[in-house]
Amino acid sequence: MSDDRLSVCQLYEEELLLLRPSEKPVHSWRVGNIAASDLSGLPFVLYPKDSNMRQIIDLYLDRVGVTPEVAMEAADTELIVRLVEAGLGQSILPANALRRSPRYFRAARISGGRLFRQQAVATLRASSRPLTLAITQFVIDNLS
To answer: Which tens digit of pLDDT belongs to each residue from 115-131?
Structure first.
C-alpha cells in the first residue's frame, strides 16, 4: 500500500517458523524441517483471522498446500508459545520470539519455501514532534 503521507523505513526481514510441542525440554536452538503433508489434520494455534500476521500465515500455508485445523486463536505471541508448549497444537511464529531456553517446543521450517515478514517503521511525513522524531530515529539506528 502506498501513501504519500507516510514515510516508511524498512528495518529487517524476520523468519517465521513452525512450532511443534515437545514433551521433553529442549535446551538447544536447532531448526528442523518438516514436510507440509505431515501437518495435515493437526491442530493449530494461530493469530486472529483479522490480523496481518494471520493473513501472512494463511497465504503461506495455502501456497504449500496446508489447510490448518484451527483449534484456538490468540493475539499474544507469548501466549501462543505457551499454548503450543501445553500441547494444544502447532503454530507459526517469528523466530525472534522463540530463543528462550529451556522450552517445550521444537522449531521447524515447512518444506515448500521459507516464510519471512518485513519489519518497518512508518511515520507521518507531517509529524515534526521532537519526541516522535527521536524515538523513530532511535528505532531505525538500532534495528536496521
So the answer is: 998 888 887 777 677 88
